[in-house]
Amino acid sequence: NAGVMQNPRHLVRRRGQEARLRCSPMKGHSHVYWYRQLPEEGLKFMVYLQKENIIDESGMPKERFSAEFPKEGPSILRIQQVVRGDSAAYFCASSPTGDSYEQYFGPGTRLTVT
Amino acid sequence: AQSVSQHNHHVILSEAASLELGCNYSYGGTVNLFWYVQYPGQHLQLLLKYFSGDPLVKGIKGFEAEFIKSKFSFNLRKPSVQWSDTAEYFCAVKIWGSQGNLIFGKGTKLSVKP
């Protein structure tokens, strides 16, 4: 059973470009969570999605960031017009249900904005 | 707002030393508690978790943690560390009945000298 997959593992973007981060949950999991880890910080919750639904986006910056989890395909975290402050590791986690006790994490995507 | 505090930013130990990493959270209701480990270059892995019952929880690789409700603490312990335990350790809390996102501490880096 494959774990949570994220790609790319490393992404370099220049200021003003768009970044697209992909997350494929574990097989059988329909709940996806995105977290961001800034240098010297713990993981901060961004958004929680089910298939075709955003359940909680209270941790998402109000502008430039969006997320989706379509019926088919991976979940996408999209950052428009990236700035240097967006440089971070972005982790995706999945769980089988929303009130599941455990979340399984992917390897993360390290975004560097130059 | 709920938060998780990890007291030590960086801990350096020699092999065979005993380990205790502190974790406190700020929430008066029911919580689920987790310790995750992130080995260099790898993704987060679950070490152990507490949901209910015996407050002393055993995890993988000889780790254990004790939930002390009156102190809002969930400290991680290991009697004798190994060089391979060098990693970053994150304490996380899930508010029972919440949408599902985890609240993480900032992490503690553990360096074990051979």
For this entry, give a set of tags:
heterodimer, A: 114 residues, mainly beta, B: 114 residues, 0% helix, globular
Structural class of chain B: mainly beta
In percent, how helical is the residue content of chain A? Answer: under 10%
Name the structural class of chain A: mainly beta
Mean pLDDT across every amino acid position of chain A: 92
Q: Biggest β-sheet of chain A, characterized?
A: 7 strands, mixed
Major beta-sheet overview of chain B: 6 strands, mixed
Along the chain, the helix and strand elements of chain A come as EEEEEEEEEEE
Number of helices of chain A: 0
Q: Could you tell me the number of beta strands of chain B?
A: 12
Q: List how many beta strands of chain A DSSP finds.
A: 11
Distance between the termini of chain B: 41 Å
Largest interface: A-B, 28 and 25 residues
- Beta percentage of chain A is over 45%
Helical residue percent band of chain B:
under 10%
Question: What separation lies between the terminal Cα atoms of chain A?
Answer: 37 Å
Low-confidence stretches of chain A: none
Q: What is the radius of gyration of chain B computed over CA atoms, rounded to a whole number of angstroms?
A: 14 Å
Oligomer: heterodimer
